[in-house]
Write a structure and sequence with these properties.
The complex is a heterodimer of chains A (10) and B (192). With 10 residues, chain A is mostly beta strands. Helix content of chain A is 0%, strand content 20%. Classes of the chains: A mainly beta (10), B mainly alpha (192). Strand 1 of chain A pairs parallel with strand 1 (155-156) of chain B, so a sheet runs across the interface.
Chain lengths: 10, 192
C-alpha cells in the first residue's frame, strides 16, 4: 500500500 | 563577500528562494527529524535571507545589481503557486498548504534568473556556474527519489516528484547551452 509522504526532505 | 560584482544575479529569484524556505520550514517549530535536517534548514534560511539582505542593503553589491533587466514580477509566480497549493494538497491545514506552496514555488523560482540571463546575454562565469550547479543539485533529488522508491516503504510523493521533474525540465534548455559553450570552449550566451 501507499503511505503519506514523510516531510524529511529539505 | 570579496566578489562584489553581482551583475547577472537576479534578486527576484533570491527573494523567491527566501520565501520558499520560510514557508517550507514551518515544521521546525513542530517536528524534529534530525540534527542534520535542522542545521541544514537553518543554513538554507540564513543564506537565502542574507543574500537578499546583501543585494538590497550592501553598498558595493547593490551598485552592481542589474535592476533594469531584472523586471520579472513576483506575483506572476507567487499567486498561481498559492492558488495551486490551495487546490492540490494532501491535507488542508495551514502548515501543509504552505509546504505545498513552497514545493510549487521552488519549481519555478529560477525563472526570473533565466530571464535575466537571457536579457543581459553576457553571462559571467559566476552566474553561469551558479545556475548550472543549482540545476545539477536538484536533478540529484530525482536520483535520490528513485533510490528511496526501491529501498523504503512505498510512499506517495506525487507533489514533490512532479514539481521536481518540472523544475529540472526548466533547467534543461539552459543546460544545453551551458554544456555547448563548455564543449566548444566559448563564452556562454543564451539566444534572445
Amino acid at each position: 500500500g501507499c503511505l503519506p509522504a514523510p516531510k524529511d526532505e529539505l | 563577500r570579496k566578489n562584489t560584482n553581482k551583475r547577472g544575479v537576479s534578486l527576484k529569484t533570491q527573494e523567491l528562494y527566501a520565501l520558499v524556505f520560510a514557508t517550507r520550514y514551518l515544521d521546525m517549530f513542530t517536528d524534529f527529524i534530525s540534527l542534520y535536517n535542522t542545521v541544514m534548514k537553518l543554513i538554507f534560511l540564513s543564506s537565502s535571507f542574507s543574500i537578499v539582505w546583501y543585494m538590497r542593503r550592501h553598498k558595493l553589491v547593490r551598485r552592481s545589481y542589474d535592476k533594469d533587466h531584472d523586471t520579472f514580477r513576483h506575483q506572476f509566480l507567487v499567486l498561481p503557486c498559492l492558488i495551486l497549493a490551495l487546490l492540490i494538497h494532501e491535507q488542508f491545514t495551514f502548515k501543509e498548504v504552505m509546504w505545498t506552496f513552497s514545493i510549487y514555488l521552488e519549481a519555478v523560482a529560477i525563472l526570473p534568473q533565466l530571464v535575466l540571463l537571457q536579457r543581459t546575454r553576457n553571462i559571467d562565469n559566476l552566474t553561469g556556474q551558479y545556475v548550472f550547479f543549482l540545476g545539477a543539485y536538484r536533478s540529484l533529488y530525482i536520483l535520490n527519489w528513485i533510490y528511496r522508491y526501491f529501498t523504503e516503504p512505498h510512499y506517495v510523493h506525487w507533489i514533490t516528484w512532479i514539481s521536481g521533474f518540472v523544475q529540472t525540465l526548466l533547467y534543461a534548455d539552459f543546460f544545453y547551452y551551458y554544456l555547448n559553450s563548455w564543449k566548444n570552449n566559448v563564452k556562454l550566451t543564451l539566444p534572445a
